[in-house]
Amino acid sequence: MNRNQVIILSLLFSCFLFSQNSKQNNPGVFPKEACGVWCWYSWGGSPNVWNGKILPNETYSKMRGIPIVIGWNELEPKEGVYNWDLIDDIIKKAAANQKYVFTLLWLNPTEPDWLYENGVPKVEINTYKSDKNFSYNAYPLDPEYKFYSERIITKLANHLRSLPENLFQYILFHQVVEGSTGDGYCYKGDPVDPKYNVDKKVEWPAYQAYIRKFTIDAFTNKSNGLPEIPLLIHTEDMEWGAKEYSGFVNKKGVASHFYGSNDTKRKMEIYSPWDTDKNSLNRPVFSRGEGETMWLSKWFMKDPLQNLYWSALYALHSGLDIWNLPQKILEDPTYYQALDLFDKYAGYKYPERSPVAFCALRDQLNTDDKNRFPENIYGESNRKNTDRVQKICAAFASHGAIIQDLDKTLAGSLASRGRTGYNDVGWSCIDDDYSLYLYPIAKLETSVGWWHIGPKDQPYGLEGRGFEHASGKDAMYFKFHDDFFKTIPAQSLKFRIVWLDTNKGSWSFCYDAGGKDLITAKTFIGIGTNTWREDEITITDAVMQKNGPRGSDIALLNTGKKDYIFHLIEVERK
């Protein structure tokens, strides 16, 4: 066994130990085997019931876990009577199949009716929801409500923390629930009686802070000798979360609700520092998110597999670790290519420990980008100027860019999700290539974007970038994260490259082997099939110290006069 093999085995063993002990020694740090696709089954005004499908012949074989979402009225249907089997039976089945769980107790709108018999005010709501469960709620600021809600939270925490180790080890975290269905406010509408209004600027934030702190203490305090359960806190104030609880997990809906929404670039700037260990916690903050709302959207239905596949790339780029998807999707092999993609890369928060990296090439057209699209040419940049949107799209129409719902191109984040078709121009959308530890260098200077390309039976062609020989764009350069080879030397790497074979030209894959110039690993000859090709290359003498042009580690070089379009570069340590 050579020295490098010893180093690799030692690192893998260390990562195994790190994973095994992460909950005890590093609360909030997920083991890799917990990261990936989980099922989801709860929406509307009351939690639905998990269908129990867990075996490979029943559902997606790589499903990593099951959420346990339960209403207060189910857990405590009569005062002081607790249906623990509703939770325990799922944990037992999950543990028997080496799947993880997290727990989520809905206090609202599933309050048990006995609360009102005990004097808690029953608030009638003019709800905008069709579900009758939203038509009345308990008044959350009532002292009696506080007593009973604190009691059920404490009972649940103590029960879970007292489970035997063979079950407890599969509880990944508990999600703090604040508002209705776990959302950001107590009511889905306005109270009929205004005396039960809860002020959103003062009273509700105070309630949120109180219930968060109470739940954190219930699940983590050491005075009772019980083991800690990490907490998911749903907040965009990441610094607050880190200060309140060092083991906190986050909900990242902006990453889980599929690609293409406006304002995602701005929103992800909130989270990106917390996807690394370069923050006040000195560790990444792991996250989950639900992808349950897009399935019947008109834009998504145009090509469900392709859109889920690209949503997986977007979610990975955005640092999502657990993707909760509807049970029916996990039972449909049509989607498994997209699910496999997310499963492969999810959870690798530390570049030096990651065995993989990728870069999915793309070009986002943002109408708020005044540098790329000067106002003196395209018009004023604001959220009403659709003429500017159309001018930007027209400039790239020959490469496939389209707008199918003009009004949604400048809409807010939530409204833009409801677009009726593809919009390749947006507002403050993520404009990076979707990537994990492999990044393009000066991509707009070295390549051109393409949209809606290649055959429909392959999911790769939503976007891409390629050569443009006529303008001298014949080389695309890439570099690895500075820490990717910090622990394990580069040396042996396997690359998978997905490219569109449109003509009989040629291109080369080049890499840094330690010399003054990149060396050619292989030259590929096009046939002109107009299909996406997937080619693999294994190199054994890589150095990857950014010795190439523009500080690159690898490059795609055009060796002829024909142009090619690329979708993906994947890397795996060997």
UniProtKB/TrEMBL annotation:
- Signal peptide start-end: 1-19
Q: Which GO terms describe its molecular function?
A: beta-galactosidase activity
Pfam families to which the protein is assigned, alphabetical: Glyco_hydro_42
The organism's place on the tree of life at top rank: Bacteria
Gene Ontology CC terms, in alphabetical order: beta-galactosidase complex
Q: Which InterPro entries match?
A: GH, Glyco_hydro_42_N
Q: Name one GO biological process term.
A: carbohydrate metabolic process
Q: What is this protein called?
A: Glycoside hydrolase family 42 N-terminal domain-containing protein
- Membrane-spanning ranges: none
Query: Has UniProt tagged this entry with the keyword Nucleotide-binding?
Result: no
